[in-house]
């Protein structure tokens, strides 16, 4: 056996053992801390890599390579089948306009229920030197855990809007045809929900620059006019996701619009809950002095 071949075989075996230990560590943390790969397929892909490296490590020492090839081929086919059957989740990923924040959901394909993902990159600062910063382009490399379960199962249609760099609005159709919205704030100081929603700062009249969108936030309910079509927004049916963002629903719980107020309390962003209204974001400014 050539010296180079022996060195490569040894390195392959060492890498296979290290990856096997890493997979064992992953299973431990997955069981006890709920940490998982963003994409289910990564677990099986690493298993296939372990098998390939082990084969390359043992092959030079085998006098009869046929049984080894058959065994390796069978195990790879088995892992391929496990990969196909084990892909139970769909991943929804979107990065903010300037790539400073990444919104991630993990949806169970069988039930439609999804959970917002908090990336391991932010939970363990010590790993930031080893892991890439979360982004849409490298999401399949990352680890996360379930942070917040969405209330309703996700249907076939959804959209993600970024009204600003630090806030994502996920609008989706549920499996029963209703609409729902989920908002995630990436500003720690304003991320906590507010018991009173946007009140009293929202009280007053608001209008878009072209005058086609108007909000009369006085009394109960508020009146939102979009191109002449009126929608009533009842403050009693609002869901607060942060101190600056709320979702207004109807009496049956169907989401109507998400309203986001900026820090100056003079600008308001309105996002329709209908996921078919892609890129529909209305920007309003206050036309009356706040109370």
Describe the structure in your own words:
The protein is an alpha+beta fold. The chain has helices at residues 3-33, 41-58, 65-86, 120-123, and strands at 36-37, 89-95, 102-108, 114-119, 143-149, 154-164, 167-174, 179-185, 204-207, 213-217, 222-226, 229-233, 238-242, 245-249, 255-261, 267-272, 282-286. The protein has a 9-stranded antiparallel beta sheet with strand order 12-11-10-9-17-16-15-14-13, with no helix packed on it. The chain has a 5-stranded antiparallel beta sheet with strand order 1-5-4-3-2. A 3-stranded antiparallel beta sheet has the order 6-7-8, with no helix packed on it. The longest helix has 31 residues, at 3-33. The mean pLDDT is 87.
Average pLDDT works out at 87
Strand portion, in percent? Answer: 35-45%
Distance between the termini: 86 Å
- Low-confidence region ranges: none
Largest sheet: 9 strands, antiparallel
Order of helices and strands: HEHHEEEHEEEEEEEEEEEEE
Please provide the count of β strands: 17
Instruction: Give the overall form.
Output: elongated
Helix content: 25-40%
For the CA atoms, what is the radius of gyration?
25 Å
Q: Return the structural class.
A: alpha+beta
Spatial strand sequence of the major β-sheet: 12-11-10-9-17-16-15-14-13
Q: What is the count of DSSP helices, taking H or I runs of 4+ residues?
A: 4
């Amino acid at each position: 056996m050539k010296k180079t071949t022996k060195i490569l075989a040894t390195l392959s075996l060492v890498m296979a053992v290290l990856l096997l230990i890493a997979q064992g560590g992953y299973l431990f943390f997955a069981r006890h801390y709920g940490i998982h790969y963003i994409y289910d397929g990564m677990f099986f892909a690493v298993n296939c890599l372990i098998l390939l490296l082990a084969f390359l490590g043992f092959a030079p020492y085998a006098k009869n390579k046929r049984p080894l090839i058959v065994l390796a081929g069978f195990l790879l086919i088995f892992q391929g089948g496990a990969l196909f059957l084990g892909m139970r989740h769909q991943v929804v990923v979107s990065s903010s306009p300037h790539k400073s924040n990444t919104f991630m959901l993990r949806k169970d394909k069988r039930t439609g229920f999804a959970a917002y993902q908090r990336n391991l990159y932010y939970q363990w600062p010590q790993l930031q030197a080893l892991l890439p910063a979360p982004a849409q382009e490298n999401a399949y490399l990352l680890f996360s855990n379930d942070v917040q379960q969405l209330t309703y199962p996700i249907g076939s249609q959804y959209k993600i809007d970024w009204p600003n760099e630090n806030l994502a609005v996920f609008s989706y159709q549920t499996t029963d045809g209703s609409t729902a919205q989920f908002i995630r704030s990436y500003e720690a100081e304003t991320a906590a929900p507010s018991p009173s929603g946007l009140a009293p700062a929202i009280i007053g009249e608001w209008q878009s620059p072209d005058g086609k969108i108007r909000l009369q936030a006085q009394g109960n309910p508020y009146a939102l006019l979009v191109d002449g079509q009126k929608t009533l927004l009842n403050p009693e049916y609002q869901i607060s996701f942060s101190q600056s963002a709320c979702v207004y629903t109807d009496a049956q719980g169907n989401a109507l619009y998400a309203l986001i107020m900026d820090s100056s309390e003079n600008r308001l962003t309105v996002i329709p809950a209908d996921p078919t209204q892609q890129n529909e974001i209305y920007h309003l400014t206050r036309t009356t002095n706040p109370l």
